[in-house]
C-alpha cells in the first residue's frame, strides 16, 4: 500500500526523519504540501517569505520527479486535504514531522483525529530539533526558562546523525494519479503578494547545502570575531533554510563537528562552538514556545501586561521606514525593507530602540519583523523581541542598548550605515558613529533630525519600569 508524507517545514529529501520513515514503510510514497490559507492570509506574512517558499517547492517537486515520485501541492485547509488525499491514495499511513507552534499543534490534532476515524495510521516525530522538547528538563522535571543551564544540558547530550535521502520512489498508477486534483504551483502574484527583490540565500535544498559547505569551509572559524559586524559577511545566512527546513539540523550539526575537528587553533574552535551556541538558542526558543504557548500572544513575565506603552504611531512609522534620525537604526530598518533580512546585531539594536527609546509595545515590532523577514519564525522572532523588551526569559530585566555606543563598537567606520543610508555616504565617520551630525548638515542631505533623545528616553523608561514594579509589590 502507498504511504503519504505531509511536508511542512521540511522542504527537502535529505536528512528528513519523517520522510525516511515513510519511504522505509513502503517504496510507493507520495509527498504532499498544503498551501494553507490560515497561514497565507495572516497579517504577519512576508511576501519575501512566500516567494522563498514557492522557490523551495519548485525544487522539491523536481527532486521527487527525478526519483520517480510525486509531490502533490494543494491550496486549502490541511484538515480537509490531508485526509482527502490519503483516501484517494488508499494509504496505509500518513507521516509528518512535528512543529512547536500553537497553530500547528492544534491543526495536527484535528488531522490526526480524522485519519484515525478513517482507520489510517499516523506517524509523527521531531525532525527540526536536535533534541525534542520532552527530552530536556531541569533537575526537577520542569522546562528551562533560562538559557545558560538549558544550553549546558543541551550541549552535554549526544547529537543524532543525519539520515540518508531515499534512493527512489515508486510512482502511483495512472488512475490514482488522475484523481489527485492538486494545483499547479502558483506564483507569488497568484497568492496576492509581490516581491521583486533578491534573496540572501537562493531557495531550495541545493542552495542550502552549498551555503552550509561554504560557511563551514570559509567563515565559521572566524565567526566569534566577525559575527557582530553588520558590514562584514561573518554570519552563516542559513536562517531561511532552517526556517523552511531545506537543510536538516542533523546535517548542520555534523558539518560543524567536522569543521571543529579540522581546526588548528583554539580561537577557531571557540568560534565554531560560538555558532553551535546559536543553534542552542534556536532550540531554546522553540522549546519555550512549545512549553509556554501563551508566548505567542503576550509577555512571559506577567507584570509586563501592566506596562504603559506609549504607542506613538508617528514614531512607529518613522522606525518602520528608517527615518528616526539614528543612523544605525535607520540603516538596519532599510536593510530589512529592501532585502527582507537584517543582521542579528542590528535586530537587537532596533528592537531595543523601539521598546526602550520610543517606548512602543514590542508586539508592534514583532509583527513588523514577521511581515518582512525571509527567515521570520514565530519562536525565534518572539524570543528575540521579548529578550530585547525585557518581558521574556531573561534574568537581566533592564537591558538597554545605546545606539551610538553600538555603532562605535560594531560599525566604527560607518560602512554599514553608508551602504543603507545613501544620503549619509559623504559624512565623516566620527559624525556617523556618534550621531553628532549638525542640524544644518542633516537638512542639507535630507536626513531627519532625531525623533527622540536617547538619554532622556532611557531615564523615562526606567521611571516607568520602576513605577510598574513598585505598584506590583505594593500591598
Q: What secondary-structure arrangement, pairings included, does this model have?
A:
Elements: E1 3-7, H1 17-25, E2 29-35, H2 37-40, H3 47-66, E3 71-75, H4 78-89, E4 93-97, H5 102-117, E5 121-125, H6 147-155, H7 174-179, H8 205-218, H9 223-226, H10 239-244, H11 249-261, H12 266-291, H13 313-321, H14 327-339, H15 344-357, H16 362-370, H17 378-389, H18 403-410, H19 415-420, H20 429-434, H21 439-445, H22 454-473
Helix pairs in contact: 4-5, 6-12, 8-11, 11-12, 12-17, 14-15, 15-17, 16-17
Characterise the protein shown here.
This protein has helices at 17-25, 37-40, 47-66, 78-89, 102-117, 147-155, 174-179, 205-218, 223-226, 239-244, 249-261, 266-291, 313-321, 327-339, 344-357, 362-370, 378-389, 403-410, 415-420, 429-434, 439-445, 454-473, and strands at residues 3-7, 29-35, 71-75, 93-97, 121-125. With 475 residues, the protein is mainly alpha-helical. The chain has three domains: 3-128, Rossmann fold; 129-162 and 205-291, Serine Threonine Protein Phosphatase 5, Tetratricopeptide repeat, CATH 1.25.40.80; 302-470, Orthogonal Bundle (DNA Cyclobutane Dipyrimidine Photolyase, subunit A, domain 3). α1 links the parallel β1 (3-7) and β2. α16 runs antiparallel to α17 (378-389). The chain is globular and about 75 Å long. The model has no long low-confidence stretch (mean pLDDT 94).
